[in-house]
Design a protein that fits this description.
- By secondary structure, the protein is α+β, with helices and mostly antiparallel strands.
- It has one domain.
- Helix content is 46%, strand content 19%.
- It is built from three helices and three strands.
- The chain has helices at residues 26-35, 42-55, 61-74, and strands spanning 5-13, 21-25, 78-79.
- α1 packs antiparallel against α2 and α2 (42-55) packs antiparallel against α3.
- The longest helix is centred in the middle third of the chain and has 14 residues, at 42-55.
Length: 83
Amino acid sequence: MIEIQWGAPITLYPAHNGVAERFSTIEKARHWLRRNWPIVDDARQAALEKIESAMDCMSPVKEARSAFVAAALSAGFVPDRAS
């Protein structure tokens, strides 16, 4: 399987104690949104839709990345400054 890179990795830090997680591919972001995301809300759903659209080459990866960061903020994560 070919992994889709989406630029500089995004590191998310939990708002409260926990281990930071680094996302460098769209596949890992999709997996986390589906399996490990702490909340289910509209931002999560929008990120999943944008990621799946980008994986199908129907929308830019940049849009998927932006939607993922928005979902992370909505879920209480703190992204690193490079995100």
